[in-house]
Design brief:
single chain; about 375 residues; mainly beta; five-stranded mixed beta sheet; 2 helices; 27 strands
Length: about 375
């Protein structure tokens, strides 16, 4: 039958061509007459638009010449309205997007936040990155790579040859098939899916992911392992591995957890289902004190946060049930930073889910001078009513 287009165009994003030229990227081809009308565009703070150029042949991009040139310390809002597509559908709302001159990408600015390395049969891997700063970056200055067993970089690929701005607290998902990701997971921000022709191949058991800036400096890297998945999931095919806290170390197995079942085992383009910030107060802090390790995305893990007067303590952490029986030997002789975080997923030494009840978190730390500290904290393993 005949396809009827009744959806008006939307402004997807804006990129910087140079300090005096902006490119607006739309969701579909525009009517060339409305797209060339300079009165259909505005820039805040007040910036004059000198000329408009509709880019042929697809008519999905529009270049704006502006005066004065962009200020490096300003975020601009580009507003578009009254634009029509080739079928005559006119924008029903005023659409806008932000743009700014991007900053240089330094180590730790952009983080590896989620990875699907074992997709369902016939599916595709995806890698989610996250801007953990208050700065704006351009993904054309970022590359993704893998590494071999000797930590030598392999398969270095640019993410995009065109400008794609990454704003503070924004997630972008890299994949070779964006349509497959949208069909199999809820992508709350589909415009943040970025197709990449040569995403490195990620093994189902373990592998390495490396982000590089345009100087080939390692911005973030992650050596993942399938054993980091929640042990009580029978089949991890199609289950992504999510970062719990962006402010904790990437290469920490306790900072990763399987995506929750309630979100379809993946959260591409939005906040992770297992997201939880470490809570620092006293030297040892538990949060949440009551947790339910059922992988539903709500309080699935117990955070054991620590904050000491100095770095260099060595820690042992054991968890006991209310009868004093050891449930799990969680941490053994681990050298600590001054602040950090452990997690317990509610699984026992025997690989089983801990029974509902009260548990004692016993922590011992000591330094090279023989100084020893002991802590006992109480948590509760809970479960939903059936």
């Amino acid at each position: 039958g005949n396809y009827v287009d009744s959806i008006p165009p939307t402004l997807v994003r804006v990129t910087v061509i140079d300090n005096a030229t902006l490119q607006l990227i739309f969701s579909e081809s525009l009517d060339s007459i409305s797209a060339a009308n300079i009165s259909n565009y505005f820039i805040q703070p007040n910036t004059a638009i000198i000329s408009v150029q509709v880019i042929s042949p697809d008519l999905m991009n529009v270049n704006l010449q502006i005066d004065p040139a962009l200020d490096t310390n300003t975020v601009y809002t580009i507003i578009a309205n009254n634009l029509a597509d080739c079928h005559g559908n006119i924008m029903t709302i005023v659409d806008s997007a932000k743009v700014a001159i991007p900053s240089i990408i330094n180590i730790g600015d952009i983080l590896i936040n989620e990875i699907l390395f074992n997709p369902k049969t016939g599916g595709y891997d995806y890698l989610e990155i996250y801007n953990n700063t208050d700065k704006i970056f351009d993904l054309k200055d970022l590359k993704v790579s893998s590494a071999d067993d000797f930590d030598s970089l392999t398969s270095i690929n640019e993410i995009t040859s065109e400008s794609f701005l990454l704003f503070p607290d924004q997630y972008v998902v890299l994949t070779e098939n964006s349509d497959w990701v949208k069909q199999n997971y809820v992508a709350q921000n589909p415009d943040w899916l970025l197709g990449i022709t040569n995403l490195p191949s990620y093994n189902d058991d373990e592998g390495r992911v490396v982000l590089l800036n345009n100087l080939n400096e390692r911005i973030d890297e992650f050596h993942y392992n399938a054993s980091w998945h929640f042990p009580l999931i029978d089949d991890v095919e199609g289950v992504s591995l999510e970062r719990i806290d962006p402010n904790q170390a990437t290469q920490d197995s306790m900072n990763w957890h399987s995506a929750a079942s309630t979100v379809g085992y993946g959260t591409p383009t939005y906040k992770n289902s297992q997201y939880s910030e470490a809570s620092f107060g006293n030297e040892i802090t538990l949060s949440p004190q009551v947790f339910s390790p059922d992988n539903d995305g709500y309080n699935d893990v117990l955070n054991i946060s620590y904050q000491f007067d100095k770095a260099g303590y060595t820690a042992n952490v054991k968890i006991f049930d209310a009868e004093g029986r050891e449930t799990i030997n969680l941490i053994r002789n681990l050298l600590l930073a001054q602040t950090g975080n452990f997690t317990w997923d509610g699984v026992t030494n025997d690989g089983e889910k801990a029974r509902v009840g009260t548990y004692i978190i016993y922590t011992q730390v000591f330094d090279l001078n023989g100084k020893v500290k002991h802590y006992k904290k109480v948590c509760v393993v809970a479960a939903k009513k059936s």
